[in-house]
Amino acid sequence: MSKIKPRGKVPKTASVDEIIEIKTLIRHPMHSGRMKDKDGKKIPKRIINKFLVKFNGKQVFGMDLEPSISTNPYIAFPFKAKKTGTFDFEWTDDNGDKYNMSRKMTVS
Amino acid sequence: MKQIKMKIISRRNVLHLLGGATGSVLFSKYALSKPNLALNKIKEISKNAKVDEVDLFLDVPEIAENGNQVKVSFDIESPMTEEDFVKTVYILADGNPAPNVAKFSFTTDMGACSATTRMRLSKTQNIYLLAEYNNGNFAMTKSKVKVTIGGCGG
Q1: What DSSP line would sit under A32-50, residue for residue?
Q2: How many CB atoms lie within 10 A of CB B38?
Q3: According to CATH, what is the number of the domain A5-35+43-107?
Q4: B28 lies in a domain?
Q5: Of A64, A68, A79, the CB nearest to B109
Q6: How many structural domains is chain B composed of?
Q7: What is the pLDDT of residue B10?
Q8: How far apart are CA B26 and CA B31, in angstroms?
Q9: Those residues with Cβ within 8 angstroms of residue B54's Cβ, 6 or more apart along the chain or in another chain
Q10: What pLDDT, in 10s, does the model give residues A3-61?
């Protein structure tokens, strides 16, 4: 299986009160528990079930993912820039693993 | 004589086939009228509160050639202030093995209520968008997506 790797696109700079768009993607198989492998055996369910975004430590966006979300979940959402800070993204896997990523944004 | 007999049999076969076909059509109609899991889920989420069917902006393709990657995005008009904002948005699909697709939790820091993601669809079905406002009101909208190749495996 390919390595699970989060990616994100956050504008480096933004002006005050500008609504920016944040795009994230994590490489993950999102096994729904219904697919079968080459030998016809069911692949056990393993998905990213939670996605959380914090800005300067405060939660600003959250998403619960279900097996109906595609492989390599892509999530885009807006954010209103007010001050300079850091975004912390966190994906939670069914097996308890957490994948993290941070991005800085400067507001002028 | 033999030929005639064969003809009769084949005609019977045809009739049988026709009967089978109508039977399966009827059956599929019956299958369609089974309880709508997505609507049941909406009732469960809203705790039987009144859900207004309004025109929220739900962007899904009319025809999805590949059910594995169907882009879904929404944009709900809201001032997103402490007094008036959209708290939670649910996406549900009534033809998938499980109706839930995603649940989004919004905060006023976001300034707008929109998001984009990609989902799997196993067959042609309705997609529901359910929004929960901070004052406890609900609004929903639905959109039909035709799926050419299903994307749920199996």
Answers
A1: -S--B-TTSPBPPPB-EEE
A2: 26
A3: 2.60.40.10
A4: no
A5: A79
A6: 1
A7: 58
A8: 9
A9: B139, B140, B141
A10: 788 999 999 999 999 999 999 999 999 998 888 888 888 889 999 999 999 999 999 99
Q: In terms of C-beta density within 10 A (0-12 exposed, 13-18 middle, 19 or more buried), how is residue A58 classed?
A: exposed
Residue B90 structural domain: 34-147
Interface test with B, best of A65, A66, A92 (most B CBs within 10 A): A66
Which residues in A lie closer than 8 A to residue B107 (C-beta atoms)? Answer: 59-61
Domain-embedded: residue B123: yes
Instruction: Report ipTM (2 d.p.).
Output: 0.90
| pLDDT tens for each residue of B4-52 | 555 555 555 554 555 555 544 444 445 555 678 888 889 888 888 888 8
**Quick one: closest CA in B to A36, which residue?**
B154
Spell out the residues 6+ positions from residue B85 whose beta carbon is closer than 8 angstroms to its own: B78, B79, B106, B107, B108, B113, B133, B134
CA neighbor of A51 nearest in space, from A25, A12, A79: A25
Rounded to an integer, the average pLDDT of B59-87 is 92
| B146 φ/ψ angles, rounded to the nearest 5 degrees | -90, 130
As given in the structure block, the two tokens for residue A35 are: 């697919």
Question: B-contacting residues of A 39-98, CB under 8 Å?
Answer: 55, 58-71, 73-80, 82
